[in-house]
Structures are given as C-alpha cells and as structure tokens.
Amino acid sequence: MVKLYREKISPKADMIEAEFREMILGYDREIITPMEASKRFGIEYSLPIITNNEKIVSGDLIPAYIEELRNLMQDWQAFQGDWCYVNDDRLVC
After folding, report:
1. What does the pLDDT look like over 59-74, one tens digit per residue?
2. How far apart are CA 71 and CA 45, in angstroms?
C-alpha cells in the first residue's frame, strides 16, 4: 500500500497528492513532523516521504517514483477491461 508521510502544510506534498488523485491511486496519508520522520526513517530521508511496502522514497527521487507509479497504474488499467487500443505503436488488449 502506498503511504505518504507529510507535514500538515507542505506545497510539495500537496502536489504529490494531486498526482495521486490524477492517477486515481489509492494511498494513505499520515501527518508527521520532521523530527518524527527522522526517528522513523533515519536522517537521510526528509518530508514528504512515500512508502510502498518496503520501498522508501523522498527528496529528488520522488518525481521518478511517481512516474514509475503512473506507468504501473496505466498498465494495470489497460488490462482491467475487455477491449484493445494502440499505445505507442503496439496493440494492448
């Protein structure tokens, strides 16, 4: 399960949540302080932090991870219906 750890007021975390909503991605949110984050995840991670099972992502790695999630969601949605479409010159059914 994807979980977003964030401060209550955080424009960066707000943008991450907007991306999740656009992807129609289910996630949990937990409001924590930077001190709680460093105790829980270590000083190498800063808020906002995204976790997914054992994966922990923060800082400059977040945009690439959101893109990875976006691709995963597109693949998942592509195989949920009984229809086909052409995506990047390939047939997806």
Report:
1. 999 999 999 998 888 7
2. 24
